[in-house]
Amino acid sequence: MALLITKRCINCDMCEPECPNQAISMGDEIYQIDADRCTECVGHYDTPTCQQVCPIDNTIIIDPQHIEAREALWEKFVVMHHPV
């Protein structure tokens, strides 16, 4: 699964520097998460750091359009951080 930043985002700039995959960037109005780069911090941390640092509850949620098993997230992490 990838995560999704909802319209509740206040653009506080807390999540973007915390993302170990550089999956978060500023969109047209609010921050957005690149589903191809988001591993929900699998391979880095036990829980997604963006959710932990976000000051607004329920702003960063599981993206229903990008459901992935933990194994798929792990594979994505390996490809991004340990290319052959």
From TrEMBL:
<dbReference type="InterPro" id="IPR050157">
    <property type="entry name" value="PSI_iron-sulfur_center"/>
</dbReference>
<keyword id="KW-0408">Iron</keyword>
<dbReference type="InterPro" id="IPR047927">
    <property type="entry name" value="YfhL-like"/>
</dbReference>
<dbReference type="GO" id="GO:0005737">
    <property type="term" value="C:cytoplasm"/>
</dbReference>
<dbReference type="InterPro" id="IPR017900">
    <property type="entry name" value="4Fe4S_Fe_S_CS"/>
</dbReference>
<dbReference type="GO" id="GO:0046872">
    <property type="term" value="F:metal ion binding"/>
</dbReference>
<keyword id="KW-0677">Repeat</keyword>
<keyword id="KW-0813">Transport</keyword>
<keyword id="KW-0411">Iron-sulfur</keyword>
<feature type="domain" description="4Fe-4S ferredoxin-type">
    <location>
        <begin position="1"/>
        <end position="29"/>
    </location>
</feature>
<keyword id="KW-0479">Metal-binding</keyword>
<dbReference type="GO" id="GO:0051539">
    <property type="term" value="F:4 iron, 4 sulfur cluster binding"/>
</dbReference>
<keyword id="KW-0249">Electron transport</keyword>
<dbReference type="InterPro" id="IPR017896">
    <property type="entry name" value="4Fe4S_Fe-S-bd"/>
</dbReference>
<protein>
    <submittedName>
        <fullName>Ferredoxin</fullName>
    </submittedName>
</protein>
<dbReference type="Pfam" id="PF12838">
    <property type="entry name" value="Fer4_7"/>
</dbReference>
<keyword id="KW-0004">4Fe-4S</keyword>
